[in-house]
Amino acid sequence: MKLIDGKQTAQDLKKDIAVEVADFIRQYGRRPHLAAVLVGEDPASQTYVRNKEKDCKEVGMDSSLYKFPDTITREELISCVQTINDDPEIDGLIVQLPLPDHLDAQEIIETIDPSKDVDGFHPVNVGRMVLGLPSFVSATPAGIADLLEYYKIPTQGKECVIIGRSNIVGKPLANLLSQKGPGGDCTVTLCHSRTKELDKICRRADILIAALGRPGFLKANMVKEGAVVIDVGISRVEDKNTKSGFRLAGDVDFEQVAPRCSYITPVPGGVGPMTRVSLLKNTLKAALKHIK
Ligand code: NAD
Question: 103 CB less than 6 Å from ligand 1?
Fold first, then answer.
């Protein structure tokens, strides 16, 4: 069994991005710029946004934070997104999800200029990705594809099973891995909460991806000997032995499953850091597109 080290891979890729950013600054006299919109006080969202700002700084990009209380109205939020859309100095824009209940996240996403939608959530980018056209691919699926490529894990003709059909992970990932060409060409089965005989389907997988948000869900009896297992899940579970009183857990029962795998990602330190790198890659891509 080989551990897929997402943290180290992300560090390596960030070094390459920093070189490209330095080139960009030399050529065009400004830094690529990511704007994040944060509504409310959700601690996890605050951490995610802080990390994104830290990542930008690390590779030499600018970042701005637009922070609002959860009493912000729909009109005020849309107006903020439009202001950022119109700002020629800003290349990428993300609205941190989830939003408070009175705001319709889909409506807000659809007000983002697709050329700045570095999360790849706008229907234009999703549609282009499905058609195999150049687009911003959402960060977690893109990060997983990069991890497979970095570890030279073949995908062509492989049976891939994905558990979880969310718009941000499962669905785009299923599309990405079944695209024609390098990094794709998998035969993908997308499973969800209504899937029958999930264990049996999982046991077919050469590449098994768990993205359902249920800690320790994937057990050894669901994994074929020699499979590649990618754990996307991140849940906080109570742990009295830690200072904070909780720890992060993936969707895979790591202890049980790891001995059966050829490759496996840990949680934390697997997919998470790669998601962050993908956002940087998309921001650089957006900046290059805007300049041109
Ligand atoms: P979600 O929470 O929107 O949906 C969960 C999906 O799992 C649904 O499609 C549902 O049908 C499926 N599901 C639930 N129970 C199931 C069961 N018993 N059997 C089969 N399928 C079942 O999904 P999400 O937003 O993609 O998040 C999934 C997990 O991935 C969460 O833990 C989330 O925190 C994590 N996540 C991690 C990253 C990262 O960067 N590592 C990024 C995004 C999400």
Answer: no
Atom of ligand 1 nearest to the CA of 251: 32
- Residue nearest atom 13 in ligand 1 by C-alpha distance: 193
Task: Identify the CATH homologous superfamily for domain 29-113.
Answer: Leucine Dehydrogenase, chain A, domain 1 (3.40.50.10860)
pLDDT per position as a tens digit, 145-186: 999 999 999 999 999 999 999 999 999 999 999 999 999 999
Residue in 212, 218, 251 to alter for ligand 1 test, most ligand atoms within 8 A of Cβ = 212
Span 203-254, pLDDT tens digits: 999 999 999 999 999 999 999 999 999 999 999 999 999 999 999 999 999 9
In contact, 56 and 85? CB cutoff 8 Å: no
Residue range(s) occupied by CATH 3.40.50.720 in the chain: 139-271
Task: Please name the fold of domain 139-271.
Answer: Rossmann fold (3.40.50)
Question: In the predicted model, what is the mean pLDDT of residues 10-39?
Answer: 98
Q: Any residues with CB less than 8 A from the CB of 31 and at least 6 apart, and which?
A: 21, 24, 25, 60, 61, 62
Give the separation between CA 214 and CA 252, rounded to whole angstroms. Answer: 8
- Residue 36 CB-density burial (10 A; 0-12 exposed, 13-18 middle, 19+ buried): buried
The pLDDT confidence band at residue 292, using thresholds 50, 70 and 90, is confident
> Is this model's pTM higher than 0.70 or not?
yes
Ligand 1 centre to CA of 213 (Å) is: 4
